[in-house]
Design goal:
Blueprint (H helix, E strand, L loop, with lengths): L1 H28 L1 H7 L13 H19 L8 H22 L7 E2 L2 E2 H5 L11 H31 L41 H37 L12 H13 L5 H25 L6 H10 L8 H18 L12 E5 L11 E4 L9 E5 L12 H8 L4 H10 L5 H4 L4 H17 L6 H26 L4 H11 L4 H13 L6 H20 L5 H9 L6 H21 L1
Parallel strand pairs: 3-5
Antiparallel strand pairs: 1-2, 4-5
Length: 576
């Protein structure tokens, strides 16, 4: 017995040290993430991202997995075994991504490191003189960041790891806004236009001059250099084929992406067939909603009516923002009926920046800072209001904010007992599957009151179902880009602009779009299983708390957790 106890203590200590060492390595290698996490030791740095840096990191990650294999898993507690298994799976995913060289394709017309850098003012603390000095140091470091990315992109050009040309059409529009004659015109200069009171007056002129010099001498020349490289070298070298299978070892790469993003052992063909089945089911539900609306025409005519009737569109960006805010405030009041545990961190809404809005998605979510210094934010795209229908707002808002992304991610960050790599990590199928499931929760809480808004919900569900078909179609089954566009246009009410942007996103990001519907289907499957098994004893709040209670986990792990919960609930009620 003493020997068993010693083994358990040794294994637990070894695992704890390994997780601590890997976390420290991650923070040092990802200083922007460290800042968002609340570790401010590296606030004056940007990541090193050259080809050599990627190789160095991969070597270290392999060493971490080697150490993991040396730990006696059987001697660990159940919670530690779960940490062990998740750490191993994430490490294996990371090594596979490196081997397939996905990092060599870091930009698209939707954005990349260069557009993300422009959001630095809202990503970092700017309350003290030291904060501003760190910010300026990062502005000066941008030139190296650009050179590092050019290094990996050139390596990709040599070896065939290059982006598809359609994903780069208009990419210059994401770079050109940052090439300014006057540094004060740069979005990165904005924090210098109004200092907080906590920055002494005596320091402000010096900081302003230093920031102006950094933008003029580092930022703008680097954006100009990057634009020159992209347009003269990279875009001409882009591949004409859209499929991931056109990349080196592309068939194995896409099979890996399907497994990684769904967290299941599933094939592209199986995903494709699931998508086709879901499209058929949702089309039938859409037909019923059209009937309820009293519309006498066919599906295409109804969609055209929705796309063109002015009653369904905001007249100003402010109106669109207010409509979103109203929906979310309504849902805030419903949350206690669905959850026993709720996050403490709040969220806000912001407009998508003008320099990325034309080529990016309808909305997205930015998580809160790990140290509680910044709320989560729901970004709303107000560009081209005619492509942002009001009847989609409920589904979109519930997905991105509450009870979707913000609720799940903020709650995960606040869970006690989880190691940091899990508190701030993710499995896409869980995160996006939950957010899509959250859209449907609105039905249970009185949202989608008229047939148009309910049709908007179905449009969003259909959007995720068609992803299963077109992503696998383009990357594994020989579909063309136009086939994908036509399939989505035929089955959704999304605007053509949104459809084209979405299809190009799937081309640029193989497999990621599969996570949403696969994850949602699994959560709905597990809920139905629990409802059948527990009958009147089923508690929706307890079910949701169990789903979210361990943070984002692979779907097979979630299934085991829910089965254990069902068994425990049955035993408890039988005993009562």
């Amino acid at each position: 017995m003493a020997g068993d106890a010693t083994q358990k203590r040794t294994a637990s200590k070894e695992l704890g040290q390994l997780l601590a060492d890997e976390w420290e390595f991650s923070l040092r290698e990802s200083p922007l993430f460290a800042t968002s996490f609340g570790d401010h030791r590296f606030d004056d740095r940007l990541p090193a991202t050259s080809e050599a840096d990627h190789e160095r990191r991969n070597t270290q990650e392999r060493e971490f997995l080697k150490r993991l294999d040396g730990i006696d898993r059987d001697a660990l507690s159940p919670d530690e075994q779960l940490n062990y298994d998740i750490f191993k799976r994430l490490g294996q995913h990371g090594i596979a991504e490196h081997e397939f060289r996905s990092y060599r394709m870091p930009i698209t017309k939707m954005g990349g490191f260069h557009s993300g850098f422009a959001e630095l003012p809202i990503q970092v603390p700017l309350r003290t003189t030291d904060h501003y000095e760190n910010y300026i140091a990062r502005l000066n470091a941008f030139s190296r960041l650009v050179e590092d990315h050019i290094d990996v992109m050139r390596a990709g050009m040599r070896d065939g790891h290059v982006s598809a040309d359609v994903t780069l059409t208009g990419v210059e529009k994401t770079i050109e806004p940052h090439i300014v004659e006057d540094p004060a015109e740069s979005p990165l200069f904005k924090p210098l236009t109004k200092f907080p009171e906590t920055v002494p007056e005596k320091n402000r002129t010096r900081l302003t001059d230093a920031a102006r010099a950094a933008i003029a001498e580092s930022v703008v020349p680097s954006y100009r250099r990057f634009l020159d490289f992209v347009m003269k070298e990279y875009v001409p070298a882009a591949r004409t084929e859209i499929a991931a299978t056109a990349l080196p070892d592309g068939e194995a790469f896409y099979a890996h992406r399907v497994r990684m993003f769904t967290s299941l052992e599933i094939t592209a063909q199986q995903v494709h067939e699931t998508g086709q089945s879901e499209v058929k089911r949702i089309r039938a539900e859409m037909a019923e909603v059209i009937r309820q609306a009293g519309f006498t025409g066919e599906f295409k005519a109804f969609v055209e009516f929705l796309r063109t009737d002015e009653q369904f569109y905001a007249k100003t960006p402010e109106e669109l923002m207010k409509e979103n805010a109203y929906v979310l405030k309504r849902m805030d009041g419903e949350l206690p009926t669905l959850f026993g545990r709720m996050p403490r961190m709040s969220y806000g809404i912001r407009k998508v920046p003008d320099y990325t809005a034309p080529n990016t998605t309808t909305a997205y979510y930015w998580p809160p800072a790990g140290d509680g210094s910044r709320a989560g934010f729901y970004y709303i795209n107000t560009y081209d209001l005619k492509s942002r229908p009001l009847y989609e707002i409920e589904a979109l808002s519930l997905h991105e904010a509450v009870p979707g992304h913000h609720f799940q991610i903020a709650l995960q960050q606040e869970l006690e007992g989880l190691p940091n790599f899990r508190r701030f990590g993710a499995f896409t199928a869980f995160v996006e599957g939950w957010a899509l499931y959250a859209e449907r929760l609105g039905l249970e809480r009185g949202f989608y009151e008229d047939p148009y808004r309910n049709f908007g919900r179905l449009v969003y569900e259909m959007w995720r179902a068609t992803r299963l078909v077109v992503d696998t179609g383009m990357h594994a089954l020989g579909w063309t880009r136009q086939q994908a566009i036509d399939f989505m246009a035929e089955n959704t009410a999304l605007s053509l602009l949104n459809i084209e942007n979405e299809v190009d996103r799937y081309i640029a990001w193989p497999g990621q779009a599969l996570a949403y519907k696969i994850g949602e289907l699994k959560i709905r499957e597990l809920r139905a299983r629990a409802e059948r098994a527990l009958g009147e004893a089923f508690d929706i709040r307890a079910f949701h708390d169990t789903v979210l209670g361990n943070g984002a986990v692979p779907l097979d792990v979630l299934e085991a957790m829910i089965d254990d919960w069902i068994a425990s609930e049955k035993k408890g009620h039988a005993g009562g």
